Amino acid sequence: MESSEALTIGEVINLLKEDFPDVSVSKVRFLESQGLLSPGRSDGGYRQFDSHDIDRLRFILGQQRDHFLPLKVIKSKLTLWERGEDVGPGVMGDEDRLLQPQRETITRDELLRRSSLVPGELDALIDHSLIRPDESGAFSGQALVVATEARRLFSHGLEARHLRTILHAVEREADVLGQLTAPLRRARNAEAHEQARNILAGAGEAMISVHRALLTEELKRLADS
């Protein structure tokens, strides 16, 4: 595309605003800084977007809006998009799934059935804040994981009150990451919030792995003592 046919960043924003109300100059610049966009430049150094750049930006913004994908996953999909291959939701790693919104919920009866807990055990987990129903009384998929694993621990003689040590550890770990990302989360722009989510997902998954490795070492030490 000739320079005269290219659009400025402001013109691109106006073109996409109807479909993507949250798009902004700072957001486009942020995507460029992350290596997802590479618009041309005029002799005066101003960004110039051709039709391919605009299609690429539409794809990126659509993946964020429709699939809530982090930039790392979108960047990996861009290669497929460039080749014209299928770029469906695909499979995300644990790190990328960590903060994905959970839309599916289950009822109390379904949670009891699928976890094999008895009502009193579930109530104890709720009382100790290990499982939290939402405002409608429904439970998330993560609550099912907690309930199922708690049932295994109960079979070994532990009680809900013993599991609060896990909750306390999790709260301390989350607090560390909360302090790490606080400046970004307090910022008033979408790019900073995106950075915060990426850090929370990546650092959160790393922290889970470290936690598991350290606990494994301690358990081995106990088994060998």
List its salient traits:
Multidrug-efflux Transporter Regulator, Chain: A, Domain 2, 10 helices, mainly alpha, 2 domains, 62% helix, two-stranded antiparallel sheet, single chain, 2% strand, 225 residues
CA(first)-CA(last) distance:
72 Å
So what's the overall shape?
Answer: elongated
Structural class: mainly alpha
Count of distinct strands = 2
Question: What is the averaged pLDDT score?
Answer: 86
The oligomeric state of the chains shown is single chain
Helix content: 55-70%
What do you see in this structure?
The chain has 225 residues and is mostly helical. The protein has 2 domains: 3-92, Orthogonal Bundle (Multidrug-efflux Transporter Regulator, Chain: A, Domain 2), CATH 1.10.1660.10; 108-224, Multidrug-efflux Transporter Regulator, Chain: A, Domain 2, CATH 1.10.1660. Helix content is 62%, strand content 2%. It has 10 helices and 2 strands; from the N terminus they run H-H-E-E-H-H-H-H-H-H-H-H. The protein has helices at residues 9-16, 25-33, 51-67, 71-82, 94-97, 108-115, 119-127, 141-155, 164-186, 190-224; strands at 40-41, 47-48. Strands 1-2 form a two-stranded antiparallel ribbon. A hairpin with a 5-residue loop joins strand 1 and strand 2 (47-48). The longest helix has 35 residues, at 190-224. The protein is elongated and about 75 Å long. The N and C termini lie far apart (72 Å). 16% of the residues are buried. Mean pLDDT is 86; it is low at 91-95.
